[in-house]
Amino acid sequence: MEKSTAMFMTVLAALLLVALAVTGVFLNISLQTQRQYRLEANNGYEQAYYQLTDSVGNMRVNLDKARVTRDPAMMCELMMDASVSCESAAQALYKFSANGYSASALTKFANQVGDYCAYLHSKAAKGEEITQSDYASLQKLSSYAAAVQEKLAPVRDGIGEGGYEFSSRLGSLNEEFSSIMNALQDGSMEYPSLIYDGPFSDGLDDKQAKTLSGEEITPERGAEIIEEKLESVGISGATYVGEGSSHFKTYLYSVENEHGSGDVQLAAAGGAIVQFSFNCETSREKDFDPEDVAVKFVTALGYENMAPVWSAESDGVIYMNLCYKQDGVIIYPDMVKVKINASDGHVTGCETLQYLFNHTQRSLEKPALSSEDILSRKWGELETKSVRLAVIPTPGGGERLAYEVYGTVGEEKFFVYADVNTGREVRVLKVVDSEQGELLI
Length: 441
Description:
This protein is of the alpha+beta class. It has three domains: 29-185; 219-358, no CATH class; 371-440, Nuclear Transport Factor 2, Chain: A (Roll), CATH 3.10.450. The protein is 43% helix and 26% strand. It has helices spanning 2-66, 72-97, 104-125, 132-160, 173-185, 219-229, 290-300, 353-358, 371-376; strands at residues 238-245, 249-257, 260-267, 273-280, 306-314, 317-326, 329-341, 347-351, 383-394, 398-409, 412-419, 425-434, 437-440. Strands 1, 2, 3, 4, 5, 6, 7, 8, 9, 10, 11, 12 and 13 form a 13-stranded mixed sheet that branches. The longest helix has 65 residues, at 2-66. The chain is globular and about 105 Å long.
């Protein structure tokens, strides 16, 4: 009996040693995989940061050069180079924007500087005068770019010294980006207010998201939500990457399918999709309706009663803005933006921040004037094409109900917003064509 027990203990010890060895092998493989993933992620962030700082530097140089030229051809060249740098900066920021809302001010800055450069390029190309006001704006934008460069420099220096690891400091990036955002928003400088992708696409004034509700989900549940809501674009799996926070807590995931890869940002409270970006490479062509694609996509995300209000196409991408519609009224503050591949109809991106920050059921007043009253009025030389009711944002974070009057003067397009009770004009926007699509200023 003792001999049998001794043999059993010997066999058991041998099995435990084998199990420990196997476990050690798997642990070693797992640690190697984690280290490899962190290294690849860190290299990606470093590359994006270098791209961002180089792009901002090039942007500033071209803005400064433009201040000393009076030749239309040279102005066109410089504004084109500056626009390319702005686009490059925005692309780099997309990598970081999924870490929280803290990079949005920088993205807005890059986009709007690019739009202003496109506007000046258009003026110069048409032989129109670049005014002293335009040159003053270039000086302000250059000063802004210099301030951004100064704020970005310490992190870049840390990368060069080998002491900055992005993959382990996703949360701390908020400090760097938030300091830049605060500098941009402290009121010490102003830059031209342009609305580059549709009426009131920049109406994000509130600092508290009205729509976020529900208990905080787990990262695992977040991955399930992504698979459920992005099934329509072929996403079947999501990998949790990290956590971000700024105005509200978010989760960051990486996604991929046979067509490409991308990133998704979820709100931790309730699991709403905040941002989706996908690099898609396909060559198949098919007929599709961009508005239908966009509406079906945002509905699948859980955003219902959304109506297309603006679209533009540039460099093979269709940009579509959709707004909530309540009782037949367009609610501009409740906006969702969608990007669609123009060749095959694949959705390659979306952003829902304005909807999440602003959406609520409004108590809409009954207008004293009817749409027929508005149509019967004379709006200068404007040939009225359409009239509809809309809630528009106002300076300071407010809202007002207005009639949106769309019309033309010759080939020029305009939007006029009129008070629903008095008919007084409260806002006028002009559509400007550019190589980047249609701008509104």
